[in-house]
Amino acid sequence: MSGPRLRSMNVGDSEAARPVFGPAGNKTGPLSSRKPASKPLRKAEKLYNEAKEKKSYEVSTVVASPQSYSASVLRRHEQLLHCNLSLNASCSSDASTDSFHSRASTGRLTRSNSLGCTRKRSVSKPRSVASDGVLESPPHGSQSKKRCAWITPNTEPCYATFHDKEWGVPVHDDKKLFELLVLSSALSELTWPAILSKRHILGEVFADFDPVAISKFNEKKIMAPGSTASSLLSDLKLRAIIENARQISKVIEEFGSFDKYIWSFVNHKPIISRFRYPRQVPVKTPKADVISKDLVRRGFRGVGPTVIYSFMQVVGLTNDHLISCFRFQDCMAVAEGKEENAVKDDAQQKEGDHVESDLSIAIDNLSLSSE
Is Nucleotidyltransferase among this UniProt entry's keywords (predicted)? Predict the structure, then answer.
């Protein structure tokens, strides 16, 4: 009697009964013939997969290598850039504007605003430009004219002008000489800039420095409380100005002019100092001491050696401009010109005297012959 057939649970048997699809057709081979083939097949698939993974890894490495190379080049260029920017102080402000951009696909580097430093270097020096595009000279003419070391860009304009136009120029006018003597005597209380700022007021108070007019002033009026003069100088200086005006009037009567008297101490020729450095310029000299003593003997006040040497510098009795100052040669030229004029005047005067003497002799001879 035949019952239902039971399915075998043996996997090996079922595997043996299954047909295998192969290139020669559907065959059912023995298990012994198929088992050895399974291991080589798995090894081949494993080798194929490993080769495929290795190939994909190499491809990915090749693709990624330009990116890593470009990134390393980028980092190297950025490091060089930062080094250059840190060493160059003038272009440090441009470090934020200079940008570097990289493209991973090409590995190229581009830089924007690469001429920023060069342009800023070319315009870093301040230079004044006129409206028509012509370069103007720096203030105070520092490039074309060199002054004495005590005249700086911070010097007050009135004092710089005084240095450029008056200080050291030979003076031969009596009123001008007295004015500069008054200003020099005020140096014991004020500085040159302060004195020069009050110069016009002093001129109004003291009758334009006319010694004859000042000698007639009333001291009490000049030194009265609330007067203009009392606000400018001390009472001692005001008295000295009035007294010196009186003594100058006496000198004029004796020598014919204060100019002849004061210039006689230097033989009517300026003393040329030829100083190179400010430290060489003295405060007083033996010549100033001689002049001071003679003035004091004549009744002048406030005329010590220091004041007199300042007076000598101002009126050109001595040329104390530094030899590097442009005014040194100017003052020498003025002195030489005046000396030549004085020689010509003396020659003309001598010639006139000679002609007059000849005429007088001729007249005397005619008178004798007529008798």
Answer: no
